[in-house]
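User: I'll paste a sequence; please echo it back and then give the predicted structure.

Assistant: Echoing your sequence first, then the prediction.
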Amino acid sequence: MLIFFDDDETGRKDAPVLRDELLRQGYPSTFDFPPPDENGKKMDANEILQFYGNQKLSELILNASKTLQNRLQYPSKPFTYTRKNIPDFAVNSISSANTININFQNESDFFLHDFQENIEHRKKFSSRKTGFSNIDNNQILLPGVYILGGLPSIGKTTFVWQLLKQCADNGEHCLFISYEMSLIQLRSKSLARQLWLRDPTSTLTATQISMGSFNNALLEIIAQHQNSTRDFRAVKFSNERLSEILPSLDAFCDSLDKPPIICIDYLQRIPFNERERRDGISNNFRLLKDFQFKTDSTVIALSSLNRDNYSAPISFESFKETGEIEYSADVMWGL
C-alpha cells in the first residue's frame, strides 16, 4: 500500500498511523506527501490537478510510486488471508453511504435485456435533419461531442447558428452559447438571411440590421420571429467558467422532453486559470464531455486552428491548443 496524503497537519499525523495499522494487518506499506510548488507552497492533489492538469498529477503519482516502492516496510510475521483479516475500516468504507452500486453486466444479460432498448433509443435521433444535405446524407447527428474547426472569419459561427436554427425548425431543442458575439449580432444573422431569401436583391447586411436599418419586408420578418414557436435559445457569456454554468445547463436539459443540441462558440474562449495553460482547454473539454454523456445531449464546440496550419489541410494537429480533444471528441469537422 502506497499512502499519499496531503502535506498538512492531519496528513502528517494520520499517514504513519495508517501505515502501522496496515502493517499489523499484513500489508507492506509506506507513505509520502505531494511536493510543494516552485514557490515552496504546499499543494494537495486537487490543487495540482486544477493548476497543472491531469498529466502533471499522473506523472507525480507515478514518480512517487517508484520512490515509495523502494521504501516499503514489510510485516514482521507471515500473513495468511482469510475473510476476517479484512480491516474494519475497509469493511466500513465498502458499506458506506458514499459507495455506488455498479452493475458489471455480462454479455447475455445485455443482449437479453438492454440491446433492443439501446437500439430504440438511438433510433429516436435518426429523423434529425440539420437542413444541410451534405451532412444529412452522410451522418446522423447523434448525441456526442462534435468539434468544428476552421480558419478565422471563414464562417464557423454563421454555419452552426444556421444549423441550429434549421434543427429548431424541425422540432429540436437548440441552445447557442456565445463567448464572442452578442445576441443582437447573432439574431441579426437570421434576419439578414430571411430577408435575402425573400428578396435576393436586398442589400441590408446583418451589421446594418443590428444598427437599426429596416425596410417593410424586414419588419414583417421581425413580426414573424416575435411569434416564433420553435425552441431556439441563445445566451451570451464573458468570464463565466464552464464549472460555473454546467449546473444551469444540467437543469436546462432536465426540463426538456428530449436531449437538446447545444453549440459553444468557441472552445478557446471558455475561461480557465492561466496557470493551467494548455491543460486548461483539455480540462474544460473533459468537463464538457462528462456533461454531454450525463445529459445525452449533442454538443457542437467551435475551435480555432493553429496559425501554422492556416495554409495546410485540416488534421488533428490543426486545432489550436486543444491538447487531448482528439481522444474524447466523437466527431471532428473541418470547415
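Residues 2-94 form one domain. The chain has two domains: 2-94, 122-179+237-334.
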